[in-house]
Amino acid sequence: MKTIKLSAALLAATLLVGLSACSGMSRRDRDTAIGAGVGAVGGAVLTGGSAVGTVGGAAVGGVIGNQVGKDR
Q1: What pLDDT digit, counting tens, does each position of 3-14 carry?
Q2: Distances (CA, A) of 50 to 4, 26, 54, 55
């Protein structure tokens, strides 16, 4: 039970720090970061948690996220 509470507290602190770091980003930078995150999760799921799949998915997702808002 202690480990779950500690894990939840660490997750909450990490999310707060991560979200505050995004406040000065441009919309295109945020799209890139979101694309990389979604791509990493997708790559991990599709390859069964492979590190290469996760990194590859993050790279592809980051490029797609960067290009989505290019014309705005």
Answers
A1: 766 667 776 776
A2: 26, 31, 6, 9
- Can you tell me the distance from the alpha carbon of 43 to that of 35, in angstroms, rounded to the nearest whole number? 12
- For residues 28 and 32, give the distance between their C-alpha atoms in angstroms, rounded to a whole number: 6
Per-domain boundaries in the chain: 25-72
Instruction: Work out the number of other CB atoms within 10 angstroms of the CB of residue 58.
Output: 20
Neighbours of 55 (CB within 10 A): 14
Q: Which two tokens stand for residue 62?
A: 């980051």
Cα 54 to the chain's mean position, in Å? 11
Cα 9 from chain centroid (whole Å): 19
